[in-house]
Amino acid sequence: MGKRGIIVGIGLAAAVVVIGIVLWQLLRPGLPPGLLVASGRIEGRITTVTPKVAGRVVAFAVDEGQTVAVDTLLATLEDEALRERLRAAEENLAVLGHQSSGAETRLAALRKQVPLQIRQAEAALRETAARLEKRRAEYLQAERDAKRAEDLVRQKFASPQAAEAAKLKAQTARSAVLEEEAALVRAEKQLALSRLGEEEIRAQSAALDALRSQAMQAQAALAEQRSYVTELRIASPLKGTVLTRNVETGERVNPGTPLFTLVDLDRLYLKVYVPEPDIGKLALGQEARVHVDAYPDRFFRAKLSKVAQQAEFTPKMVETREERVKLVFAVELNLEENPGGVLKPGMPADAVIRWQEGAPWIKP
Questions:
Q1: How many angstroms separate the CA atoms of 54 and 295, rounded?
Q2: If 304 and its partner were Cys, which of 32, 176, 189, 286 is the partner (CB 3.0–4.6 Å)?
Q3: Is the pLDDT of residue 28 over 50?
Q4: Confidence at 313, pLDDT banded by 50, 70, 90
């Protein structure tokens, strides 16, 4: 066969292929009514784990690709200054606790002692006042007896010695009165002094309240420092998979520094783009099936969860029908299942959305 024959044969073969493709395009079955097919990539709700306190990374408990549960330890930080503040807060609370305990003991003793002292002082005052009244009565009687004795001496009915004895008795009774008056003053002062103990009780009670208030503040400060130390333990806030680890052992990190990114494989979604002419067919909650190349014989149930309010990849001003056709809207389909975590963020996927109830499912 000559060169010309070879060329003719190649041309005939190419023509057959083109004709076959055209016939396949023309004769292949169309998409059943009520279904819409779109493609996109699987995405996940990404959570960035950051520390709340500064510290040096001393250990990692997980690495990229591992699945973790809620509160699983991811990494451990260390900060000596933070622990020193914790120790200082503990010591301060201990000192205030001892001071409060001593103040409580003193106050309890005063509350028992002062009322007893007041009662004793009041009793002593009453006794002194009673003795004073008795001494005054005795003095008045002695005065009357001395005067009577003087009258009897003038009338020659009594001897001068009797009058002198009566006068001496009256003077002795007067001295006794003066002594009891002085004793009464001392008793009154002692009662007043005893009652000052009530002021001491109030002052001690106020001091105890101040110590208790300081102890409460110290306890709050201690709880705060303990919470900071607790934050040196970096735990997972969710059940998910570690996508990235952004730091290395020994690095110093500050609050807000990204340490890990996690994704919840049970909350994946497929993001697709739907042309503007088809967007009116969609509504939230519509059923969908997602297909991925890695599992050609399976599908994964999903539901339409979000439709963008604005179109993308189009001119700002759309004037003609041809330009309107270029409009696409972002649509999210929440995957209702991911058995065994087989689906991963970034996987390309096709979705069949059933916008008309009862439409038969197909594989895209």
A1: 45
A2: 286
A3: no
A4: low
Question: Model confidence at 325, in pLDDT bands (50, 70, 90)?
Answer: low
Q: Look up the domain containing 246 and give its range.
A: 31-78+240-354
Higher pLDDT, 159 or 190: 190
In a domain, 26, yes or no: no
What backbone torsions phi and psi does residue 17 show, to the nearest 5 degrees? -65, -45
Token pair in block for residue 80: 């000596």
Phi (first) and psi of residue 309, to 5 degrees: -85, -10
Structure tokens belonging to residue 236: 């997972």
**Whether residue 219 is found in the same domain as residue 87:** yes
pTM of the model: 0.60
User: What span, in angstroms and rounded, lies between the C-alpha atoms of 98 and 96?
Assistant: 5
First to last CA, the chain: 45
Q: Are 223 and 86 in contact (CB under 8 A)?
A: no
pLDDT attached to residue 41: 92
- Average pLDDT of the chain, as a whole number: 86
Residue 125 C-alpha from the chain's centroid: 61
Q: Are 145 and 171 in contact (CB under 8 A)?
A: no
Considering the domain architecture, whether residues 253 and 202 belong to the same structural domain is answered as no
- Whole-angstrom Cα distance, residue 363 to residue 1? 47
Here the tokens at position 342 are 């087989």
Nearest to 64 by CA among 262, 251, 353, 274: 262
